[in-house]
Design brief:
The protein has 1 helix and 16 strands. By secondary structure, it is mostly beta strands. The protein starts with a strand and ends with a helix. 38% of the residues are buried.
């Protein structure tokens, strides 16, 4: 619940209380967004380049700090939308709730994966995901700066709600243009349906 903005409205550090990178022997990495207490995560599909990837979940409370990790199992993957749901056999007591309100221009958003000190960014627009026929996805275009490892990071609003997972960054062609990054949002009801179905197996 801590969102500290130390300079201007679009600058600051998001403190979620957990960090959730995905890695494979240091040769490739990204991040993911915990969405349940029992180890379900959302991420970008392109982060899952290796079959033996694992998730690292670090969190703390007033008594202790701990790091847990486990291999991940892919529950759902859509390469066209660049979106995936994965499961790790670990407890994830701190996790994200979905945003239920549409973003508005100038809303400030943050990346919550690697906890780096980078500025926030503004919401720009929603776009459809091209060549994806289900209608369950949207692109969320922002001016949020990204760094290596941000792929799959949760895109968070100022209330700490999950708005999507970061997918790609596009640098401005003209020097005065701001960089643009894109997150992918799947309808929360569909995410929850897929997770329920997986639990029942």
């Amino acid at each position: 619940a801590k969102l500290a903005t130390s300079r201007e409205a679009q600058e600051g550090v998001l403190e979620l209380g957990f960090s959730v990178p995905i890695a494979k022997g240091g040769s490739g990495f990204g991040s993911c967004a915990p969405v349940t207490a029992d180890g379900y995560f959302l991420t970008a599909a392109h982060v899952l380049a290796h079959k033996d990837s694992y998730v690292l979940y670090a969190t703390s409370n007033q008594r202790r700090t701990y790091i847990d990790y486990a291999p991940i199992r892919v529950v759902y993957r859509n390469d066209v939308a660049d979106f995936a749901i994965v499961k790790a056999d670990i407890a994830t007591p701190r996790y994200l709730r979905f945003s239920t309100e549409a973003l508005k221009p100038s809303d400030t958003l943050f990346a919550g994966g690697w906890m780096h000190e980078r500025a926030g960014g503004e919401f720009i627009q929603y776009l459809p995901v091209e060549n994806e026929g289900s209608g369950d996805f949207q692109k969320v275009v922002t001016s949020l700066p990204m760094i290596k490892g941000d792929s799959g990071s949760p895109l968070i609003d100022q209330r700490g709600r999950l708005c999507g997972v970061l997918s790609t960054m596009r640098l401005g062609v003209v020097i005065k243009m701001k960089p643009k990054s894109t997150a992918v949002r799947m309808e929360p009801s569909e995410v929850e349906r897929i997770i329920r179905q997986d639990r029942s197996r």
